[in-house]
Amino acid sequence: MGVVLRVAFFVAAVFVALRLLSYVLLATFGVVIAGTVGLFITGALGNFLTMRIFDRRPLTDIGLGSAHGSRRNFILGLLLSAGAAALMLSAPLIAGTGHLVARQNSTFAWSSLAFYLAALLFGSAGEEMIFHGYGFQLLVEKIGPFATVLPVAVIFGLAHSANPNATKMGVLNTILWGILLGYAFLRSHDLWLPIGLHYGWNAVLPLFGVNLSGLTIEVTRYSYRWDLAPLWSGGDYGPEGGLLTTVFCAALFYALTRAPVVPQVAAIAQSLNEPL
């Protein structure tokens, strides 16, 4: 079967699963589960079905195996992005241009915090399976990384354009993040490094009380108030809609070029004789 057919089937499977699961999970469990666990199930189903039908490969072959270095890559990505997010939000607090403000009638529970952190992990893994899983890896092998990473990053950014309070800067920064995550896969040839990067960033932002891609996730008793203009802070979309994220995304890219990543053997990345 040609690569185009495989990629088209993968995209169709993801689209159908996402529509069905979003409808069912949103009505049953709410937006958090639909937007996190729903994405994980969608990514897993899309990859699993495509790989079993066309290649008879296990799901782990998209870079989810437990080979030597996979755990290190995940932790490395987690520390890099979580550290960058924490520094980006701590610096204004120290400089006096950011403030933690107590939420009105807000409560805190460790069980709620654990739930949201687990949900965000599922969501991050799901997005990486969708955008950097089977379809992405086939295209990297067939048409090359430069022709694949940018278009997929643009789709990744546009997929967030419907989020609450989305802005052009927010979409642009999400595209830059898509490039960073695509590059992370090229460095590691597994999904553990990009999942770690994705999750570390997503987990830290709500802990500081800022919006995550336009979504308000209350896991602490505090919200973050900026004295900076929305051009820098991102306004209601959250930091990802501002220039601070642009700067730190560029810094993360540089750090990733120097990071001690453990390259894996990509099971999908092999010569394909089928016509495009």
Q: Can you describe what's shown?
A:
By secondary structure, the protein is mainly α. The chain contains ten helices and two strands. A two-stranded antiparallel ribbon has the order 1-2. The longest helix has 27 residues, at 3-29. The model has no long low-confidence stretch (mean pLDDT 92).
Report helical residue fraction. Answer: 55-70%
Percentage beta strand:
under 5%
Number of strands: 2
Number of helical stretches of at least 4 residues: 10
Order of helices and strands: HHHEHHHHHEHH
Radius of gyration: 19 Å
Largest sheet descriptor: 2 strands, antiparallel
Poorly predicted sequence stretches spanning 5 or more consecutive residues:
none
Briefly note the structural class of the backbone: mainly alpha
Spatial ordering of strands, largest sheet = 1-2
Overall body shape = globular
Distance between the termini: 9 Å
Estimate the mean pLDDT confidence.
92
